[in-house]
Amino acid sequence: MTPAQKNEVKLKRGHLKQQKSEMNSLWCSALYKLSIANKYKDDIFWFPHNLDFRGRTYPCPPHFNHLGDDVTRSILCFAKGKPLGKKGLDWLKIHLINLTGLKKRSSNKERLAYADYLLPEILDSADHPMDGNRWWQASDEPWQTLAACKEIANAVRSPDVEKYICHYPVHQDGSCNGLQHYAALGRDKAGAESVNLFPFEAPKDVYSDVAELVEKVRLIDAANGDEIAQVLEGFVRRKVIKQTVMTTVYGVTRYGARYQILRQLKDIPEFPEKYQWKASHYLTEATFSCLQQMFTSTKMIQDWFTECADIISKTCNKPVEWVTPLDLPVLQPYFKQKTVNLKGITKLSAEFDRPDKPNSQKQKNGFPPNYIHSLDSVHMMLTALYCWRAGITYVSVHDCYWTHPCDVDIMNKICREQFIALHSQPILEDLSKFMLERFGNIPDDLTLRALLKECLSRVPTKGNIKLCYESYSSVQIKLVFILP
Length: 484
Known about the structure:
The chain is mainly α. Helices cover about 55% and strands about 10% of the residues. This is DNA-directed RNA polymerase.
């Protein structure tokens, strides 16, 4: 064998070893989760939760919880069941179609009609999951889809559908929640339309919207003779750029985004391997450019967050901190580390945080996503409080809210009302005032103090668009952006 052939064999061997290790890890994880589920299958249990420093909630049990994977979510049910009522079965069917990912841009009415059309396949999946047509296996979330098929089959075969006691949770998920908060903070009309903060008959899908913009850019470049743009014909897909769009608001770098897109291109068997790296670079630049066109205020607000954090951590030598609209104090725990050698029978080296020395790079990069996460947690907490007052069961996975099918309309109303209530407050102005009071007088140097105050007081403008809302029915509150 030539040296090149030996090197190729070595690379393949390493790849196969990695695959074997990953599969073994997945196998052990699945067995562990299923053993926990089997242990508690006849019991009622609770998930105690923990708050992280931003206010986000996470269940304490690490291996089996509702934040888990598709299999874990598919076998979790509410301990207390409720009758489906008049619209419960409809919401079960809509939830099933949402899980499949087949009708992202269709209205709820169209999704319900599609579920009725697929009812024979749904019943076949419920009755013969492994030896039937296996329609459920083509879903984005196959195991949750199978669970929904079984619940719908039980409901439609019951003597009285409205009185059928259902334990199955229905999910209502945010449309790229980070971008929703940025669009609301900046009163960004074009961005608000893309993330469903504007009233449309059919929902918008921001990932598809960005993919369409990227495709327009690709067509122009391909016509001008760009080789990579020509190779990418037919491959600018929603799934390829979705993760990058989702994580842009949480501070993903171009380097990280490039690897996200590269992984998606590698999962497409027909895409030529030799162009994967260059194509990922091309799509990364095009995606970031199109996002800036759609969300004009987002970049401005992100830059202000970053500049404030940079000056606070470097000039004041302090970690960035703020208070959420629910009065939760937040302090970013990013500090420089020192290494200490412990001498004894054996030598140990340990790292410790130095609370007097903030890590300015992490403080700067972490502030924009952490602040949006803290707003996300405030909206979730407000929704939870008002759902509790309304007497409905409620579970959250950050921006994805769960409840009984019969209570979805009530939860939808509460969710929208609390989002509007949150963003009707002067959030950025209050943040600026807090940081000026907290950090404005710390530097000894008058020039630095003036620079800090100028930065903190320069709140990104919201233009002349104001926030309001209109009630279209007793259960539907929509966020509307109108010009005064």
